[in-house]
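Lab meeting minutes (informal)
Scribe: AK
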Amino acid sequence: MAIDIIKPLKFESNEGDIGPTETQPNEDYITAKGFSIKELEDILIDSDESGNLIFTDQVSGGPYTLAQLLSSGITENEHRGLYTLVHLLAFSNYQDITYDGWKINNMICWTNSGKTKKMREMVIAYTGWKINSLVVKQYNTAGVLSETLTGIFIWSGWKITSITWALT
């Protein structure tokens, strides 16, 4: 992909000007209504009546000032979901799985094979062959328990009909 560099020209009212001259970034400024980024025509950077830069795109809508965009962020629950998903993938450094016969009853994700800090632990409880609860313990970067998610499974015959979750 080739990148074009555009150097705007200016006309000054000095008597010595023969024609347009190159703008100097340290001396000159350019006034424009706004601009769009090539191949991303749906993004517009503009200014409002107060002189604030405003941004508009198809994802966030807009127009929004930079302060509005920086103050929005994601909610705590959105962060928790993203954190859990991303770290479940990243926590595959060392897995410790224990069994009771053919049933997995505990899975621990450790930071290393020396088992110095837990990252996540899952405890599975059964009634007969049916899972009746799943407890997921999330640890912080220091290896201290930060939250626990408990799921209670309700069965009807051979099928799970519902799972009730509680976060503590």
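Next up, CB showed the second protein from the same session:
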Amino acid sequence: MPNKPIPTVGHHFSDILICKQKAWLHYHGDSRLKMKPPARLRAMQVEGQHLEAQIYETRYAGAVKIPGIGTKSNIRSDKTIDAMRKGEPAILQGFVETSLGNGTIDVMERIGKDPGSTVGYSYRVGEIKRSEKLMTAHIMQVSWYTELLEQAFGQKTREAFFFLGGKDDQVHYENLENYRTDYQATKKALFELRDKEEGPGPHLMPACQTCDWRGLCMPQLLTENHPSLLPDLTQNHVMVLKSMGVKQWQDLDTVSDGALTDLGFNTFSIALIRKGRENLGNSYAVLRNNFRAELFDDAAYVSLEFEELRARHRQEDDGHLRPIRIHWTDGENIHSEEIRYDIQGNSQVDLMSLSRKSMLVLYGGADLGAFARIYRQNCQGIMPRLFDLLRFIETHVHVPFVGLELPYVLKHITHKEEKTEGAQRVAAIRVTAEWIARSL
């Protein structure tokens, strides 16, 4: 039996629009099994918090702010109700709770007095989003918060607003009545999913890379030889294919190209699926797009070694972390060079051999940015093309990695724990690139 479901909150609506299994796990899953967000998502979350704080300061200075999740929910609820009864012009991080669930609202703006409201005023919901484009999930979320306000206080507000792109001068208003049918259908599906004893099961998609539950779902997909290990298969495709006897990715051999065409696949997608089937059989990488076979020809593989974490407060004047050693290879031998710095903080290292390469393969934006800085300080002329292998994997590789950090990727390839520090990191980058190259 699953755990008793937690109360419905705003993110459940975005969950079900992306992945039903994720939504179900957010109701019933053991939170201790969640994985930490990857570094890229953590950076985006911090950026979002900064944008929120900026808008609070520039647009809502002096507004009442309700304590966050570290405070008991009943205290948060009481403080929100008290602020509403006082008719505060704006309430930040207001917490509303009913038998349906709860929500923490970025901004509640007072509309005016409302004799039908139990607190004497009605409030409009506002949300702050990093996205410059309004998404369906945003509408569902504010519709949920608006319904909570109606259930809790009897107000009948139908308008909500958004700060898009995190800018206080880009306020976007929406009439929620235009989305009422879609919202009610989504809520119905969500509550039905909440009440199920078992989830619908995982499905491999790009969103898995940042999901809290990837540590549970990715091994399950591999164990089951799930059809979604092949590219371009949606959850609906897999449902139809299962009705045709396709229980595992190997079973797709029994489905003709004509049958795939009837399911809506075009020639490109069918070729991609067939190539993915071949690569899975050979334990190669499955790709979401086609690339030239010579992608990594004449490439060198590069990694940078930074100071230990305990010393990382020693940064350059512009806030960047200083690399202390560079490792590179274009074959079996690994070359390492210490990076020295003069009194002005300029790096000094011999990069002549790397300057002759057409492409340098690194892993992640930190290495890429740091290398570009030291290259410009030490070399003249045009810099070789810098290729971010992490970004390539994020965008184009269709594989159920538990994480995109290099140790996770390497373990998936070699099926064993290997070190990826110092010179061993550049060896791991080369192994990963060669694994992808075999799939091209």
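CB comment: The longest helix spans residues 39-59.
No objections, moving on.
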